[in-house]
Amino acid sequence: xxxxxxxxxxxxxNDSVIxxxxxxxxxxxxxxxxxxxxxxxxxxxHLRQGAQVMLQPxxxxxxxxxxxxxxxxxxxxxxxxxxxxxxxxRVAANPEQDSLQQMxxxxxxxxxxxxxxxxxxxxxxNGGGGPxxxxxxxxxxxxxxxxxxxxxxxxxxxGPEIVREQYGIMTAIGADGAVIVxxxxxxxxxxxxxxxxxIRLIDGPELRRLIAxxxxxxxxxxxxxxxxxxxxxxxxxxxxxxxxxxxxxxxLVEPGLAGTPAIAPEPSCPRCQQTMVLRTAKMGSMAGKSxxxxxTFPACRGTRPYPA
Length: 308
Hints:
CATH topology of the largest domain: Trna Endonuclease, Chain: A, domain 1
Shape: flat
Helix content: 40-55%
CATH class of the largest domain: Alpha Beta
CATH architecture of the largest domain: 3-Layer(aba) Sandwich
């Protein structure tokens, strides 16, 4: 019985380690998790080759299990990121609707986190599992730490006690600043208390404006990238097209038309000494006029005036 209990305990412990790795990787960008998984695969493979015979099965299990957990975490991260963007785009597409009040508190936190993430912040989500201690999100930018508290109620006015509580938490953990976001409004007393403190208050209307600004910036960036790609494509194709384009457009010609008097003897090309033929310019300043052109055109572009 004791042996079976130890095996079950060891299995639960291993499962908890795998779950922990998946959760950690899910918080990272999906491509970072994939790179990490690939690196750990080779690391554990190298350790297994130099390990004792009794330890090789352990390293083999780690070589397969840990990278697999990283891949699962990367998939979770990609799915979460996609859902955040879709949720953000839905709210941005309906700025006039009462969408903030209709969403759940968890969706409200996700929306706020994505709004800051798209502004260049690194966002840590508390996850909403149990008491959050007044901290729903943690923002990092330029080495500075800001804590965020989200308040989502249909008819809620945030008073000074919430701002005072957030200021105490910010001071206790040594954060550089705090942000309080609500779908409703702040009382004048709350605004007055936060006026000279490193605390930013974002109410429902300001949050909608923030989302609209971020969306507009994303659209401009996307348009600029498309224009840049179009210019790059044009530049890349330009040398290929000029290879077949005559340098002098006015010398785009066709052989002499029927009825043109024959001139004998034909002159020699001043460039390659080959026989020249009588041609008529189709476009440019010489359009309609006859001239002597090298018979090897376009390999040689030698010309002589007509009559020679």
